[in-house]
Amino acid sequence: MHAEPDQVRRAEHVRQLLQVTARLSSAVTEAEVVDIVLGEGSAALGADTGGFWRIDGDALVLAGTFEYPAAPRTLVARLPLEPWIPIADAALRRTSVWLESLQDYRAHYPRSVARVVDHLKATGMAVACIPLGRDGDIRGVLAFAFSRSRRFDDDERAFIELLAQHCMQGIERARLYDAERGARRRAEEGRERAAFLAKASSLLAGSLDYETTLRNVAMLAVPRMADWCAIEMVTGPGQSEQVAVAHVDPAKVELAKELRRKYPPDRTQGVYEVIRTGVAQLVPTFTDEMLVAAAKGDPDRLRLGRELSLHSWMVVPIRERERILGAISFVGAESGHAYGPEDVEMAEQLGERAGLAIASAQLYQAERRARAQLARLQEATAAFASARTLEDVGQVAVGLAMMGVLADRVMVWRCRDGDDALELIAHGGVPPEHVDAIRRIPTDADVPVAQVTRTREAFFTDAGFVPQVEGVVAGSAIPLTVQGELIGVLGLAFYQPRTFANDERAFLRSVADQCAQAVDRVRSYDEALKAVRVRDDFLSIAGHELRTPLTALHLQLGSLATLARQDGTPAKLGDRAGKALSHAERLARLVDELLDVSRVAQGRLTLDLDDVDLGELATQIVTRLDDELRRAGSTPQIQVVAVRGRWDRARLDQVLTNLLANAIKYGAGFPIEITVEDRGADAIVSVRDHGIGIDPEAQARIFDRFERAVSSRHYGGLGLGLWISRQIVLSHGGSIAVSSEAGAGARFDVILPKAGPT
Ligand code: ADP
User: Fold this and answer.
1) Rounded Cα distance, 357 and 362, in Å
2) Ligand 1 near 589 CB (within 6 A)
3) Which of 191, 388, 528, 616 is 20 to 30 A from 370 via CA?
């Protein structure tokens, strides 16, 4: 059985509607919906072309077409919302417009047809315009055109209107979906931004090595926040440097570096402008025109720029309060990262946190550097103090300057009175072949080290350094002065450009000061040494000169005294001869002391070791000084044992004679005890008197040269006896000590190892 043609068509319409609905359910964008409706609708109606216009303010904008010829498409791309145009009329009257033939068209829209008649010939003779809307709110118009006149029966009209409704619903759904997806994406982005900020902040807060940290922050930004992230830091007034750059693809980093190398960035724009102004910049979408403009007509540059496939860009300042420390740039490229105001806001927060972290790191580093320099200066003081020669002092200064400010070359020159050139005393880091050239530098030369001898003011690179030595691009020269007198110059050279922070200048000045003082000290020490040497030479010569006639005199007086003891000689003569002899002996002892001083100073105190019995020696000496003891009214109480050792007899004689003579001199009128004991490995000889004693304060120094604890008005002497005694005892490997109290006598103990000197 054959169904009615109407029924067949209706069934066919239902099938087509179902098909459209099915397809629409998977459409997610307005464009997809429109595409489906136009395609399916045209097929169902047998339309030749179709189009969808969206209402946009007071115009209709072509938003989708089906088989629409290109030429008329531009004609209808934007239509005014006015009643003389059928599509607009449908929207205005919120009702479908059916034009079944050209005549129909002409009858209803004469003004329109006059304009579009040619177009109509191309697009069709019959037109259906169906407004899309809901609750009277029209969103757009769906139109179909047919190349031949035709009728639209009620079924067809109902079908098309139903189709339009589906279309409307599809579009709304797509919009809702779009809105929801957008909201989801924004929420997702917000979460990502927050997570990134939190991670980056904890990175920044967790470390004081901010350069590494910044690199880590840049790496963290990629790929979550950007395809590229670069960080530029301010290094000085008007200067900055890229400290980090990260990209998902390392090859791109190379490309960017190449671009930067070949075409140094315009320092008035972009990152530099952000650093200068502190205002963030945002380019939501990069257009090719922008690249073309940036390439400035250079095709190679344009090619490189395009290869980077930049898409979106933002730069924010790294700031610490009002201070701009640098800038972070985020670039969206291949991944399609696109930045908006929320991203800038997040990035600005990051910039502030980075600024804070850097400021505290810098503070910490400055403090640490100050502490390190202080420690170094303290070491310096010690090092300078132990430097004995000019070269040592220079070398200490060289080491300090090299370590303290990482100088590549350090030189120390001295300048001497009346010399019009600087004389190199120490250097470090100077290539050997360059040393000769700087050994002597005339003070009137046109180089910083010579200039400072005239200005007397420290010179640092920033004051206009003119490189003169190959490879040296920065330097400093600091005059070495002591109490206003210029004694030298400290020079530093660097292979890298650099400026000097205040603490570094202070450090170098302090090194220079200490160096100058050390040079001065060494100089006076040298002078003093020379003076002492001259004196010792004089003593030695004078002593020998005096010794010769004295020995002769002593012999003569000795034989005179022997003669005087013979019968018939007046007793007085013998007396006088004896006195003269003892004066001569004292004089000989003094001369010997002077000679010993120069011997010890010149290291010529040699020992003549022999087997010596200390007890026997002590007894002999007491006997020899019997006269003097008697004259002083001091009774010797001698208590000795025989102790043998490997000693220099004459020298020990000298020590004991000296101690006994002192006891007689300072303890006249009181008994004197002399003991010699055997203490196993050692022998001890003690001389004890009951005389004036020695102040505790003076006890340590009486063993030094020329030191005395009594006034020379009351007691004669050179203050040398104990000093020489101590030298002798020490050279035997022994020791000498005093115990005494003022007014209560003194006791000297000498300990001598029996084995003699080791
Ligand atoms: P001198 O006796 O020639 O001054 P010494 O070096 O022998 O030189 O002694 C140094 C100083 O030590 C003496 O000037 C004196 O002040 C003090 N002195 C040394 N021996 C004694 C002593 N037995 N009693 C008190 N003072 C002494």
Assistant:
1) 9
2) no
3) 388
Identify the pLDDT of residue 1.
44
> Residue 441: CB within 6 Å of ligand 1?
no
Given a contact cutoff of 8 angstroms between Cβ atoms, the answer to whether 746 and 734 are in contact is no
Q: What is the pLDDT of residue 248?
A: 78
Q: Is 738 in the pocket of ligand 1 (CB under 6 A)?
A: no
Q: What is the pTM of this model?
A: 0.42
CB 138 within 8 A of CB 132: yes
Phi, psi of 404 (to 5 degrees): -70, -40
What are the CA-CA distances from residue 507 to residues 277, 413, 463 (Å)? 35, 19, 18
Task: For residue range 99-158, list pLDDT tens digits in order.
Answer: 998 888 888 988 887 777 666 665 568 899 999 887 778 889 999 988 888 888 888 888
Q: CB-based contacts of 125: which residues, under 8 Å, 6+ apart?
A: 101, 102, 105, 146, 147, 148, 149, 150
Q: Determine the Cα–Cα distance for residues 497 and 550; give it in Å rounded to an integer.
A: 75
> Among the atoms of ligand 1, which is closest to the Cα of residue 663?
23
Closest C-alpha residue for ligand 1 atom 7: 721
- Give the model confidence (pLDDT) of 230-250 as tens digits: 999 888 777 888 888 888 787
The Cα 113–Cα 110 span in angstroms is 5
265: pLDDT strictly greater than 70: yes
State the DSSP H helix or E strand holding residue 748, giving kind and residue range, or none if neither.
strand 746-753
CA nearest to 201, candidates 364, 315, 355: 355
Q: Provide the 3-class DSSP secondary structure of residue 745.
A: coil
What does the pLDDT look like over 553-585, one tens digit per residue?
Answer: 988 988 888 888 887 778 788 888 888 888 888
Task: Tell which wins on pLDDT, 416 or 613.
Answer: 613
End-to-end CA distance of the chain: 144
Atom 23 of ligand 1: nearest residue by CA position: 663
Is the beta carbon of 686 within 6 A of some atom in ligand 1? no
- Is residue 325 a contact partner of residue 358, using CB atoms and an 8 Å limit? yes
Q: Is residue 753 reached through a cis peptide bond, with omega within 30 degrees of 0 on the bond before it?
A: no
DSSP states of 553-593: HHHHHHHHHHHHTSTTS-HHHHHHHHHHHHHHHHHHHHHHH
Bridge-partner residues for 126, per DSSP? 146
Report the alpha-carbon distance of residue 232 to residue 239 in Å, rounded: 10
Nearest to 426, CA basis, from 391, 468, 471, 459: 391
Q: Tell which residue, 651, 666, 675, has the closest CA to residue 726.
A: 651
Q: What pLDDT score was predicted for residue 19?
A: 79
- Residue 599 has a CB neighbour count (10 Å cut-off) of 19
Backbone angles phi, psi at 561, to 5 degrees: -65, -40
In the block, tokens 């205005």 appear at 92
Q: How far is the CA of 712 from the centre of ligand 1 (A)?
A: 11
- The secondary structure of the chain in percent helix, strand, coil, rounded to multiples of 5, reads 55, 20, 25
Tokens standing for residue 217: 């922050």
pLDDT of residue 490: 95
> Quick one: residue 753, left, alpha or beta (phi over 0 = left, psi -120 to 50 = alpha)?
beta
Structure tokens at 566: 């013979």
Q: Residue 354: what residue type?
A: A
Please tell me the predicted confidence (pLDDT) of residue 689: 97
> Is 689 touching ligand 1 by the criterion CB < 6 Å?
yes
Q: How far is the CA of 750 from the centre of ligand 1 (A)?
A: 15
Could you tell me the distance, in angstroms and rounded to a whole number, from the CA of residue 735 to the centre of ligand 1? 17
pLDDT > 60? residue 530: yes
Atom of ligand 1 nearest to the CA of 693: 25
655 in ligand 1 pocket by Cβ < 6 Å?
Answer: no
Share of the chain above pLDDT 90, in %: 32
Give ∠ CA 492-498-503 in degrees, rounded to 5: 75
Residue nearest to atom 8 of ligand 1 (CA): 719
The region of weakest confidence among 127-136, 362-371, 483-492 is 362-371
- Ligand 1, closest atom to CA 718? 3
